[in-house]
Amino acid sequence: MAATVHYKTAPVEVRERLSFTDEKMLAEGMAALKEKKSILENVILSTCNRTEVYAVVDQIHTARYYIKEFLAEFFGQDLESIAPYIRFHENEEAVRHLMKVTCGLDSMVLGETQILGQVRTSFFIAQKAGATGIIFNRLFKDAITLAKKAHTRTEIGKHAVSVSYAAVELGKKVLGGLQEKKVLVIGAGKMGELTVENLYSNGAKHITIVNRTYEKAKELAEKFSGKARPAEELADCLTDADIVISSTGSEEYILTKPMIEPIVKEKEGPLFMVDIAVPRDIDPEIGGLPSVHLYDIDDLEDVVNQNLEERKKAAGIISGWIDEGTEQFYQWIQTLGVVPLIAALREKALKIQEQTMESIVRKIPDLTERERKVISKHTKSIINQMLRDPIQQIKELAGRPDADQALYYFRKIFNLEDMAPGEDDGEQREMEAGRTKQKQAVQG
Questions:
Q1: Catalytic residue among 48, 235, 278, 382
Q2: 237 among known catalytic residues
Q3: 189 known ligand binder
Q4: Which one of 25, 104, 376, 420 is CB 3.0 to 4.6 Å from 111, fit for a cystine?
Q5: Which residues contact 398 (CB under 8 A, 6 or more apart)?
Q6: pLDDT in tens, 393-427
Q7: A Pfam family this protein belongs to (predicted)?
Q8: Architecture of domain 2-159+311-331
Q9: Is 163-290 a CATH 3.40.50.720 domain?
């Protein structure tokens, strides 16, 4: 089961109230949820855009209530106030949802890669807290492996699909990298912050931020090892800049042709300028100056739209892999109930082989050690060959609607009821647990 509260279903003020802010809080949450009725395994994922509870449960309707109760109690919220924002995915849809999330297909920015690391971290925390078991240990490893494949074998994350990211990618393309370039960001609002974050994550080491309010520029610069300069020093900053990205709320041009023209004449290399403000910050006539590469938001949106189409193509390929991964996971789930039976059958067959060898040795005591090993090897080979087809058949029958009946007759045909009481009870419990998780549990 997957219980989700994310950007598609809940406003930010609700998501804030249900956010696990650090790894310690996540571990405490998973440990607390583990004690709730009907919850057999759990992993909690919490990011700025989503809080999701993945659980293996024994009763779907009961688990729904207890997951909602857990979230309300843990965050001190009224259950009725948060319940309308929680969506549930169950069975195969829950498995498919986890894989979509991990691959970045359910993200606000299609194909973003950060979510993969967040899923991996949550899974490791859950394992350490003892909140996972056989099902989630397999499922989350499958999802993480699939996401790695998606990002290495397709270009889902290689095309900029936000204006600020497109500006940075365009700068890298035009100037051949950002590491040694001096970057000037004008404006410290939301768009400016996203721009600085993208610059920093792409290797820019020399970032200067100019803002009308110096303290805000300083606060942003400190987050990303940059420098802040007051608005009065803008002209001096332009002299040193290789890249200028502007995103203020000004009603007039901040950078005019008379201001930039003398600076360009003195510069040895090109000046890359991106105007992502509406209204524009940079006089479009500046684009006609020698060695100036000027782009506005319309230019970038063309790039974004084209890149989004490329990501959608990759997402189509990945969706096919997710369908395959979901089917393979459920095929594995279906074998859980037969594992104890197969083990019991093999054990019984080996006991018969051992008894046969003991009889042979008693009747032919003069056998050499080598002859005994040869006979033992060949009798075991006969057993393995005889068991191969029945074992394959029972694995396939486990996936049918009448699986319980098939397992019952399998036990009867091979007379597996006569195992020692302790072994039988233990294996019966294991088989029933496997069948319960297959039929009733909701994976996510």
A1: 48
A2: no
A3: yes
A4: 104
A5: 334, 335, 337, 338, 406, 407
A6: 887 777 677 888 888 888 889 998 644 333 344 44
A7: GlutR_dimer
A8: 2-Layer Sandwich (3.30)
A9: yes
164 is in an annotated binding site: no
107 is in an annotated binding site: yes
Nearest to 352 by CA among 416, 421, 428: 416
Contacts of 123 (CB under 8 A, 6+ apart): 43, 132, 136, 140, 144
Q: How confident is the model over 298-328, as pLDDT tens digits?
A: 888 777 888 888 899 999 999 999 999 999 9
Residue 47 is labelled as binding a ligand? yes
Q: Taking the chain, what is the end-to-end CA distance rounded to the nearest angstrom?
A: 5
Alpha-carbon torsion 65, 35, 39, 435, what sign? negative
Contact 87, 68 (CB under 8 A): no
- Burial (CB count within 10 angstroms: exposed 0-12, middle 13-18, buried 19+), residue 138: middle
- Edge to edge, the sheet with strand 271-275 lists 227-230, 206-211, 182-186, 243-246, 271-275, 292-296
> Over the stretch 338-384, which tens digit does the pLDDT of each residue have?
778 888 898 899 999 999 999 999 999 999 999 999 999 999 999 98
Distance, in Å, from the CA atom of 382 to the CA atom of 377, rounded to the nearest integer, reads 9
The response to whether 346 counts as a known ligand-binding position is no
0.85 surpassed by pTM: no
Q: What 3-state DSSP class applies to 430?
A: helix
Check residue 209 and give left, alpha or beta (phi > 0: left; psi -120 to 50: alpha): beta
Residue 111 in marked binding region: no
